[in-house]
Design goal:
12 helices; 2 domains; MetI-like fold; mainly alpha
Length: 300
């Protein structure tokens, strides 16, 4: 993971510095003279060679500060610490909703395949998975917030400090595509498992449908579903960037959009690094859970 993070940091740093525009020009008044811009560039260290700037930034990363913001001068790690709980709340709520509904609807669809329930869930799944998260958010705001006045339009309420209504609509917008994906994967896995010989054997021994489906069928069907779920978690972080902007949610995604607009590259790099760490940890958890759920893939 460490060499991968270093490689990601190198690529992200050099690509950002190749992007058009200059942080000093974005920060200073439009009528400033070229001399004033050069003074600001020198103060920010932008006049140094790119490899020198990378090494200086990387030393700050090692110290845990992730550099300093161009616009506020504060440590990037401090800025991210204030925004990270909001993103965790949003992603965690979306993951909880999508996991619960996706698996339950997928199991029902698999056990009742080719029935009216299966057909309805299939159509809904195709619709949900085809609509981007930000568009779902706009639809939800228009119908549920503006027309019906059921949910607040934007903002965030911290868990434990107020009503959770502001969390529901952003979490649904982020989680609905994942519900659809999980439902389809669960349905396919359940159909595959209930046709196995050991399920027929369990029924022939007098096992009740509930016992056979839960103990024998679902336990084995859950292996690929859990792996797919963890892979799809990565999409939640990318989708959160757009959902947070739509709902004015003060998280990491909105922080990145603001930093890109202001060309505050240390903040952009810090957010990218934190997201990369989260993705790599999820990949590690996928390997661990795969070995736990399926002993055949364990290494000696």
């Amino acid at each position: 993971m460490i060499p991968t993070l270093i490689l990601i940091s190198v690529i992200a740093f050099f690509l950002l510095n190749l992007a058009p525009g200059d942080p000093a020009s974005a920060m200073i008044s439009p009528d400033a003279s070229p001399a004033d811009i050069e003074v600001l560039r020198a103060r920010l260290g932008l006049d140094a060679p790119i490899h020198v700037r990378y090494w200086s930034w990387f030393q700050e990363v090692i110290r845990g500060e992730l550099g300093y913001s161009y616009t506020s001068g504060r440590p990037v790690a401090q800025i991210i610490r204030r925004r990270l709980p909001a993103t965790i709340q949003l992603v965690g709520s979306a993951l909880l909703i999508s996991t619960l509904f996706g698996i339950v609807l997928g199991v029902i669809s698999g056990l009742k395949r080719y029935t009216i329930f299966d057909n309805i869930f299939t159509v809904l799944g195709l619709v949900w998975i085809s609509i981007p998260e930000f568009f779902l958010g706009l639809i939800g705001i228009y119908f549920l917030s503006v027309q019906l006045n059921l949910f607040p339009i934007g903002g965030r309420i911290v868990i434990g400090e107020g009503r959770l209504l502001p969390t529901i609509l952003p979490a649904l917008s982020l989680g609905l595509p994942l519900i659809a994906a999980l439902m389809r994967y669960t349905r396919s896995s359940v159909i595959e498992v209930i046709n196995k010989d050991y399920v027929d054997t369990a029924f022939s021994k007098g096992g009740s449908p509930w016992y056979v489906y839960v103990v024998h069928a679902f336990r084995n069907a859950a292996i690929p579903v859990m792996i797919i779920l963890m892979f799809r978690m990565i999409r939640l972080f990318s989708g959160a960037v757009f959902v947070e902007e739509v709902f004015s949610w003060p998280g990491m995604g909105r922080l990145m959009v603001s930093a890109v607009e202001n060309r505050d590259y240390p903040v952009v790099l810090g957010v990218l690094l934190v997201i990369s760490i989260a993705v790599l940890l999820i990949s590690l958890l996928i390997d661990i859970f795969t070995a736990i759920l399926d002993p055949r893939v364990r290494y000696d």
